[in-house]
Amino acid sequence: QSTQVAIIGAGPAGLLLGHILGQAGIDYRILEARDKAYVLGRIRAGVLEQDSVDLLAKFGLDADLKANGLTHHGIYLQHEGERHHIDFAELTGRTVTVYGQQALVHHLVAEHERLGSQLIFEATDVQPTQIESTHDGDRASLAYTAPNGERITLDCDYIIGADGYHGICRRTFPEGTLDVAERVYDFAWLGILADVAPSTDDLIYALHRDGFAMHSMRSSTVSRLYLQVSPDDDIANWSDERIWAALQTRLGTEGWTLTEGPITEKSILPMRSFVVSTLNYGRLYLVGDAGHIVPPTGAKGLNSAIADVALLAEALQAHYAGDDTGLEQYSDKALDRQWKVQHFSQWMTDMLHVHPADGSAEQSAFDFQRQLGQIRYVTSSHAAQVSLAEQYAGLPFVDAR
Ligand code: FAD
Ligand code: DHB
């Protein structure tokens, strides 16, 4: 069998890339290892940058976003019970939109089904078999097992690894062609979804002596909240009562009430920073989490995946119009933007989390005071707020040429 572009992975990156290529008249097939219910059920990110929203609008993929997304003009930064608003709209003229990744994936899958796209769930044992041009021809190929058990060989021009952090595409790069830069953290996030109206208009990011806490939302009736916990903690240790008590302590300020409600989902999410040295080898290109991971503070994971897709889709379109410059420059341009995003995500993370195992108790105490100084600086300096707002609302997506 044959297609122009084979996309491995039906996360937001793979699903979106398929739509953009399809609209440009480029043939594609998306191969997803998991079943549809699993893909639709995954709860993850929640904030879209302005450029992500604009991109979805440009390709007519924003009907559900327009109906259910919540435009936000800023965030609250909080320390020691003091809450400060940072107004992105006023500082930069840009806004962000709270819209769950789950809703986005739902909409992108529904649109693929409406269009009759080649979106194959339960495509297992996907294996790129040819990723370099050979003297016999300029094509790539891969093999996969279809849901009916048939082993299929798919020839294509390009293979796109949109298969996330645990995917196989990154591991297909020949030895010595890809290095990894990585950092692990000595804390994790416990995330909950609760059936209760948000107690805040904008998201709250709080540093407290007990650890970081955040109040986000999914709709006018569903709240999303996070707590810093130890990475080796077990969710079984966290009863609903204990979670609400910790949130009340860490988010509390005078004259404000956090309304509690039934918790419908809770889990502990690991945290890492990770970037590959290149997103391209031969006819194989990586997008999204397959090539880079950020700690979640600042909501950059999903937006980085969308930024990669915007760049690569444009480069692929240019290729089919006879210009390969975009494909040649894709990896460098995407990684250039990504390292700036890595810096911002780590900066937000370091500022807002208690550093428990950084060294001695004295070091920890010093760091906490230093972080309070940092937050007081950010919340009192116009220049610092413009910098935060510019990065949170999103660095511009780069051009493929
Ligand atoms: P993914 O969404 O991981 O999609 C990859 C797809 O490839 C999956 O569907 C997978 O099943 C499929 N796949 C994997 N291997 C194969 C294979 N061998 N063959 C075929 N298919 C394969 N970001 C934020 O900004 N804020 C958050 O709060 C936040 N929370 C998160 C919570 C969790 C638990 C995780 C894991 C991530 C979170 N992120 C968050 C990050 C954000 O969700 C990701 O950056 C985003 O999902 C990246 O999209 P993607 O399409 O690149 O990868
Ligand atoms: C959400 C997640 C984040 O990592 C973040 O910085 C803001 C919001 C969320 O899930 O809503």
From TrEMBL:
The keyword Nucleus does not apply. Keywords: Monooxygenase, NAD, Oxidoreductase. Residues 3-344 form the FAD-binding domain. It comes from the Bacteria. The keyword Oxidoreductase applies. GO terms for molecular function: FAD binding; monooxygenase activity. SUPFAM superfamilies: FAD-linked reductases, C-terminal domain, FAD/NAD(P)-binding domain. Gene3D superfamilies: D-Amino Acid Oxidase, subunit A, domain 2 (3.30.9.10), FAD/NAD(P)-binding domain (3.50.50.60). PANTHER family: 3-(3-HYDROXY-PHENYL)PROPIONATE/3-HYDROXYCINNAMIC ACID HYDROXYLASE (PTHR43476), BLR0106 PROTEIN (PTHR43476:SF4). This is 4-hydroxybenzoate 3-monooxygenase.
